[in-house]
Model the fold of this input.
Amino acid sequence: MHNFMKYIYSAGEYFRYKVIAGLFAAIWNDSLPIILLAFFLMECLDIFSAWICIAYQFHKKMYPQTEIGVYKAMLFIPTARRWKQIQSAKLRIGFCDKTIVYTLLIILSFIADGILVLSHSHAIVLPVTATVLTITETLSILENLSLCNVTAIADIKKKLGKKTQQE
Done:
């Protein structure tokens, strides 16, 4: 009995690794968790880019004579938080709202595709929904970075503007 209890206690030491391995196994076998994880990461990047943008704008307001880049704006985030420019509660609510909406849209799309497959049609709702949500999040991230005067983003916007004017 003593050896059995020793085994149980040693198994608990590796609990977090087992959970992580289980999550990876679940993700590996099904595309829905991968899509949900991808949107969760994109939302995190969107919020982080919003923090960078707010810190950049705050630095610009406090020190109008100096110009900083994205890296310096990232380093300025703690100062912007101390001055209550970045309000975590407001961003947290937005993050939770987007997570709930995106998760519901993905699950409903997954169900709709299941119904389409059962009716001998092609499953197209999930890829279309995922594409639209990905484009939306990407544009939001690009918007946030363009407000920080990132030159690469401005160049992309100029090129896209030229393409639309040519057509």
